[in-house]
Specification:
Blueprint: H1 3-8, E1 12-15, E2 23-27, E3 30-34, H2 49-72, E4 76-85, H3 91-95, E5 106-114, H4 118-128, H5 132-139
Antiparallel strand pairs: 1-2, 2-3, 4-5
Length: about 160
């Protein structure tokens, strides 16, 4: 992607107005809702942010496998990808101000349906590991303020630079 294409890339936005956790998410021409379960104080009107992240990873994995199988003209009828964290993440939000948080490991199952040979199945499972979202997550990613949106640090924050 060129610098110009990056600068012109559309934003994904999330808007949470009012009480609770129900959040409207928009990207390009799509809109959907994220929320927390009722047990966590939400209204359960949409997936949680972690579920959205895992859904993006599962979708990218399935799409990557499908693209490869289609290019090879292999008889892949369906690909089902299941992903889950290996530990609960509910405490992450409560501790995010003072601790490094996050799910450090995920479990994944890839089910390939169709009259595939053993060699084709093995190759498609290898290709599943080449999913761009998976590679991005495994390499790590920094989230930084956009140059135009950078705000001065909050002087009341324990994360404000000393000085």
């Amino acid at each position: 992607m060129t610098t110009r294409e990056i600068a012109d890339a559309p934003w994904v936005s999330a808007s949470l107005d009012g009480a609770g956790f129900r959040t409207d998410v928009r990207t390009r021409t799509h809109a959907f809702v994220a929320d927390e379960p009722a047990a966590a104080g939400g209204t359960d009107t949409g997936p949680t942010p972690y579920e959205l992240l895992l859904g993006g990873l599962a979708a990218c994995t399935a799409m990557t496998v499908r693209m490869y199988a289609d290019r090879k003209r292999w008889p892949l009828e369906d690909v089902v990808v299941r992903i889950r964290p290996v530990r609960p993440h509910a405490v992450d939000c409560a501790n995010c101000e003072t601790q490094a948080v996050g799910v450090g490991r995920l479990e994944r199952e890839v089910e390939l349906l169709g009259a595939l040979t053993d060699e084709q199945r093995a190759r498609l499972l290898y290709i599943a590991d080449r999913c761009p979202v998976k590679q991005t997550l495994e390499r790590g990613i920094r989230v930084e303020p956009a140059a135009a949106a950078a705000l001065p640090p909050d002087p009341d924050s324990r994360f404000a630079p000393a000085g």
